[in-house]
Write a structure and sequence with these properties.
This protein is of the alpha+beta class. It has one domain (about 1-120): 2,3-Dihydroxybiphenyl 1,2-Dioxygenase, domain 1. It contains 2 helices and 8 strands; from the N terminus they run βαββββαβββ. It has helices at about 10-25, 75-85, and strands spanning about 1-10, 30-35, 35-40, 50, 65-70, 90-100, 105-110, 115-120. Strands 2-3-4-1-5-8-7-6 form an 8-stranded mixed beta sheet, covered by helices on one side. It is globular and about 40 Å long.
């Protein structure tokens, strides 16, 4: 069920270098990146670890930038879970929809305690 975990960073370049070197030890490499996000994995079909500049523009702290992501097998399920989270009182952190041109489709929300979650599918 877990697809990936992100860790907030205040020093993107240093964090990228750290994880490039560290995760190379287990055969992981970059498989997705943008100007604010990099993800490493041993395979695009296995759980991954990423670094990210927090969405809200605030400094990354333990927890700010941290997110639990749940992999779905369809866009309909991404849409449904995102909508249900908001209906239950969650806060929208990014509407469900495509992100970039890699086939990544996602919706972001915070739960009632402020924990950030994401539901996504590939393709």
């Amino acid at each position: 069920m877990i697809g990936y975990v992100t860790l907030g960073t205040n020093n993107y370049d240093a964090a990228a270098q750290f994880y490039d070197e560290l995760l190379a030890l287990i055969g992981a490499s970059r498989f997705m990146e943008s100007d604010r996000f990099i993800a490493w994995a041993v395979s695009p079909t296995q759980p991954s670890l990423g670094i990210i500049k927090p969405f809200d523009g605030q400094a990354a702290t333990v927890g700010n930038g941290t997110m639990v992501s749940l992999v779905m097998d369809s866009r309909d399920k991404v849409d449904a879970l995102h909508a249900k989270a908001l209906a239950l009182g969650g806060k929208d952190e990014g509407p469900a929809g495509p992100r970039g041109d890699s086939g990544f489709y996602a919706g972001y929300f915070r739960d009632l305690d402020g924990n950030k979650l994401n539901v996504f599918c590939m393709g």
